[in-house]
Specification:
By secondary structure, the chain is an alpha+beta fold. The protein is 25% helix and 28% strand. It has one domain (28-174). The mean pLDDT is 92. This is Dynein heavy chain C-terminal domain-containing protein.
C-alpha cells in the first residue's frame, strides 16, 4: 500500500470513529490511534478525574489493566483504549503476560487497555514500562506544547520477565504501522 493510500484509509477510519462518537455517544473504548494528538486526550482524561474527585491533577497518573474483553460500557473513571500494536513481543492472553513473539511475527495486536487514573500512583512490580509511539520511527521532536511529536506515554504491561529483557528486544507499542 502506498503512503497516500494508507493515509487516506486512515483518514476515513478517523472520520468514521469521530462521526460515530458524535452520532451515538461517548464510546466505551477509544481508538487511541485515531487521535492526531493523543497526549491531549489522555491529559483530558486525567483532568476529568481531577475535577470529579476534587484532587490536584499534579498528583494523578495512570495505572493500567489489560482487558480480556472490551467492556460493554465505558468505565466511570479513566478510559479504555484500543488500536495499539506490539513490536518485539506479543500479549499472551492464556497467561495474561507479555510473551516472546512467535516466529516471523513482527507486530501483534494489543488487547483493550483500561487507563485508570490513580492518585500518587506507584509503579507496581512485575510490569514492563512499555513506551508507546505514534509511528514505527520511534523518533520525534519536542513540539511547542512540550510534548514529543511521536512519543505518547509509557504503559505498564504485566510481565514475568524483568524490564531489561524487553528493553534489549526493543519492545514498544505502536499506534500506526502503515506510515
Amino acid at each position: 500500500m502506498s503512503f497516500v493510500a494508507a493515509w487516506v484509509s486512515d483518514l476515513k477510519a478517523r472520520t468514521q470513529f469521530l462521526n460515530t462518537w458524535v452520532a451515538e455517544a461517548i464510546p466505551a473504548v477509544f481508538w487511541i490511534s485515531g487521535f492526531y494528538f493523543p497526549q491531549a486526550f489522555l491529559t483530558g482524561t486525567l483532568q476529568n478525574y481531577a475535577r470529579k474527585h476534587v484532587v490536584s491533577i499534579d498528583t494523578i497518573n495512570f495505572a493500567f489493566k489489560v482487558l480480556a474483553q472490551p467492556p460493554p460500557k465505558r468505565p466511570s473513571d479513566g478510559c479504555c483504549i484500543r488500536g495499539l500494536f506490539l513490536e518485539g513481543a506479543r500479549w499472551n492472553p492464556q497467561i495474561g503476560f507479555l510473551d516472546e513473539s512467535n516466529p516471523k511475527e513482527l507486530y501483534t495486536d494489543m488487547p483493550v487497555i483500561w487507563l485508570i487514573p490513580e492518585e500518587n500512583h506507584k509503579k507496581p512490580s512485575g510490569v514492563y514500562e512499555c513506551p508507546v509511539y505514534k509511528t514505527l520511527t520511534r523518533a520525534g521532536t519536542l513540539s511547542t506544547t512540550g510534548h514529543s511529536t511521536n512519543y505518547v506515554l509509557a504503559i505498564e504491561v504485566p510481565s514475568r520477565e524483568a524490564e531489561p529483557h524487553w528493553i534489549k528486544r526493543g519492545v514498544a507499542l505502536i499506534c500506526a504501522l502503515d506510515y
